[in-house]
Write a structure and sequence with these properties.
Chain lengths: ~210, ~325
């Protein structure tokens, strides 16, 4: 019952966020029988809500990194450029960066590519197929843990959103070659800037930059 | 009639014996754990699992300190994961007239009635570490994000193994929802790596000695394992003891909890990674919210609140002490 109730809440949250109609009894039955509509809902949530949110809230990566370099000001930097839902979640920055792909590592299933920006900084971008972390979920302020009250369901959402990011990476895979230029918009979650761990960006949008950009 | 009489008498004896036990417990606990220096705001009962386990001991100690600093006297009791004992203890502290209870409960579903009993008698309960499956009975349910913490440990573990090899999972105690959540989170990560094979999985009851014995016997059958992932700290330490005994120093072990013993094992390279659960912080916040509720009638916070587990490796092990994380 509780699981079912939480599923309903999950769907309600997603439906409300996407402007969808609430789930009908038939849809609920489908969800219960495991043929979940959730995947499609997460796709819409990702494409219609999160990507636009990320694009309109992204700060230049170099600017964020520069602000974070002074770690004593972390909370201030987080407030100014980032989103932190509660003390249980890292501060998440939506960032935008353009540069040249230096390295693409697909050996690991948690694949990565390294991008060198115009000012010479190297930034790691996660390219899957496994993306560790929950930065995309954590960076979207309209969904909180209390919409779920279930760690497993909340983790499922994060994973489904990461899978959407992996689809974006796959769609752009021809462009992901060393030497090519790329623009990345993504989420960077951290507990304290570069001192607190590696700087890794989970992408939500990838594009080849306009010539001269 | 005779049989009924006998049964009645037996029941009376049982009840009397139980009452005596509870009384004895309360009296002895009061003598040992209650602090009468302060307490102008009344008494708070702090109930946790076994105080022999460093995690629960850290919780109890931090809760006690915080309560005393806020002007309460405290009564620290342990239910040893026995739901009947938990019920008796809650009944007795309610009868004693405590202002509120901070509880790390003895079992998710079975604890609902005990918490409800306190609520019905006007004694608010804050749950720490373990949740119950019902809302609106406890005034707050503070838990660690076990799923997040276990996922981080699993990612670190799989990375160290080079995404391939044979591993063993020792769960902590599958009667405990937190242990179930951790195991599921481990597999959410590990099962995505096709070259990583789990060759054995057993429950080690959350305890060091059990884990050592189980690991001993698993090693008989699988001497060629590359890693062991464990549901809590004592189990990880038990696995390490067994591996050391067998001369297998190169097996990667990961755990969860972050006790001082685990931190020492990380520093010496025997344990590769763990997640530190914020026992002290969760206990302090629990007491603060109980205090706020007692003063204002509301905690001012959502009922269910999460706390993060902090991934610990050699890089940051020196920041951990007594389940608290900070700059050295």
């Amino acid at each position: 019952m509780i699981v079912a109730a939480r599923l309903v809440v999950l769907c309600l949250v997603i439906a409300l966020n996407c402007g969808f109609a609430l789930v009908t009894q038939q849809e609920l039955a489908k969800i219960r029988s495991g043929q979940s509509k959730t995947t499609r809902d997460v796709s819409s949530l990702y494409a219609d809500k999160i990507v636009p949110y990320a694009k309109s809230h992204a700060h230049d990566m170099a600017k964020v990194q520069k602000a974070l370099a002074d770690d004593s000001a972390f909370d201030k930097v987080c407030k100014k450029y980032g989103i932190q839902k509660s003390q249980a979640f890292p501060c998440t920055f939506w960032v935008s960066l353009t540069g040249t792909i230096k390295q693409v590592d697909r050996e690991s299933r948690a694949g990565k590519m390294v991008i060198q920006t115009a000012d010479g900084e190297k930034v790691t971008v996660l390219i899957g197929p496994i993306i560790p972390g929950t930065d995309i979920r954590n960076g979207y302020p309209k969904i909180s843990y209390n919409d779920f009250n279930n760690q497993g369901d909340f983790a499922n959402l994060a994973e489904a959103l990461n899978d959407e990011a992996v689809k974006v990476v796959k769609a752009a895979s021809d462009a992901l070659q060393p030497g090519k230029r790329i623009k990345v918009i993504g989420a960077y979650g951290t507990w304290g800037g570069p001192a607190a761990g590696p700087t890794e960006v989970t992408p939500v949008a990838l594009q080849s930059p306009q010539p001269g950009a | 009639m005779t049989r009924d009489h006998t049964r009645q008498r037996t029941m009376i004896w049982h009840c009397a014996a139980m009452l005596m036990m509870v009384l004895a417990l309360v009296v002895s606990s009061t003598a040992s754990a209650a602090d009468n220096n302060d307490g102008q705001k009344g008494q708070i009962a702090i109930l946790v699992n076994s105080l022999d386990n460093p995690y629960y001991a850290a919780e109890a100690k931090a809760a006690k300190r915080k309560a005393q600093s806020l002007g309460y006297s405290t009564l620290v009791l342990s239910h040893n994961e026995d739901v009947n004992r938990q019920h008796q203890l809650i009944t007795s502290v309610v009868a004693k007239g405590v202002e509120g209870i901070v509880l790390d409960n003895a079992g998710s579903q079975a604890s609902v009635s005990a918490v409800r009993y306190a609520k019905q008698h006007g004694v608010p309960v804050v749950l720490i570490n373990r949740e119950i499956p019902e809302d609106g009975i406890a005034i707050a349910q503070l838990s660690h994000n076990n799923v997040q913490a276990a996922s981080q440990v699993a990612h670190k573990f799989v990375q160290k193994l080079g995404e391939k090899g044979k591993y063993v999972e020792l769960t902590c105690n599958l009667a405990d929802n937190n242990c179930v959540a951790r195991s599921k989170a481990f597999h959410r990560v590990l099962d995505q790596y096709p070259d990583l094979k789990m060759v054995a999985r057993q429950d080690a009851n959350g305890a060091l000695l059990d884990a050592k014995e189980i690991m001993d016997s698993i090693l008989q059958e699988h001497p060629d394992i590359d890693g062991v992932i464990c549901g809590n700290g004592p189990v990880a330490l038990g696995a390490i003891a067994s591996l050391q005994n067998a001369g297998k120093d190169d097996v990667i072990v990961a755990g969860m909890d972050g006790s001082n013993e685990e931190i020492e094992a990380i520093k010496s390279g025997k344990l590769y990674a763990t997640a530190m659960l914020q026992a002290q912080k969760i206990a302090r916040v629990g007491v603060s919210e109980l205090d706020k509720y007692l003063r204002t009638g509301s905690t001012g916070r959502p009922e269910r609140q999460l706390f993060r587990g902090i991934l610990i490796t050699k890089d940051n092990a020196d920041k951990v002490h007594d389940f608290s994380y900070g700059k050295k």
